[in-house]
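User: quick one, fold this
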Amino acid sequence: MSEELLASATYLGPVHLRVIDIAAALPVWVDAVGLAVLGDDGATVGLGVDGKALIVLHAGADAVLPPKSRDLFHVAIHVTTRKELARVAARLKASGLRHSAQDHLISESLYVSDPSGNGIEICFDTPERYASRQETADGRVTLIARDGSAHSGLEPLNVAGLLRELGNSGHVEPMLAADAFIGHIHMRARSPEALMAFYLGVLGFRPHIQSRSFGLFDCGTDRRPHMVAFNIWARDELREPPPGAAGLDHFTVVVPSAEDLAAVARQLGNANLPSTQTDGALHLADPEGNRLRIVVAGN
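Assistant:
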């Protein structure tokens, strides 16, 4: 593993997604998720909170991203209070959109997709409930709560209980809170070990879960251990997305300083991996073609 290049202050910036029709996508991203439109030039629409871009939609995809395609699994927008997660749950319920909810013990999550097949997770982190993780020889993973109880991490979330956070007013808040942020991005993968060699050994992320038997590989920083994740749950059913499909265009990694950016550029050069640098941003792709852009905070 390389020198750990990425500081704990590294975080994820805007995630750029391809869609077939921006107008068709906005009821999900704006009305249900609660993002505000920050800018629209016809070909792209920026969405975010309090003037801060979280998602950029790019028009022009020719096909929906099929289920079990190698590409985006979901982009995760994290909220900082359980009441805020309940507000999203209320909007999803009112929207009539098909959605789901899971209790991962380490977090509580709501899931929905836009009409182009781009997966969306709204996540509230609950690390105070989690104590440890046990993995058996056959790959079964059990999460142990602080009270000693065992969990799969895939239990259904009690949405009725979550909605009680809102009381009995019946009011549905239309917008996501200003402190929402991109917490992680999750892709389907063919060769997670090769991907981890890149994200850990070249870019300098720290390893978190690395389990072929469980089917999940992820990495992050000391501050956020789960930032970039890959799963192999589709196994033999995984397929390449068709040409022109919706899905991930690129995601953004924000480093604290120009020195951090220069260190990543040097590491890419030392590994003889292609990248380009324009307008203070480093553009590159991982071994499976997922594109990312590394920028300095404030730029």
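User: anything notable?
Assistant: The mean pLDDT is 94.
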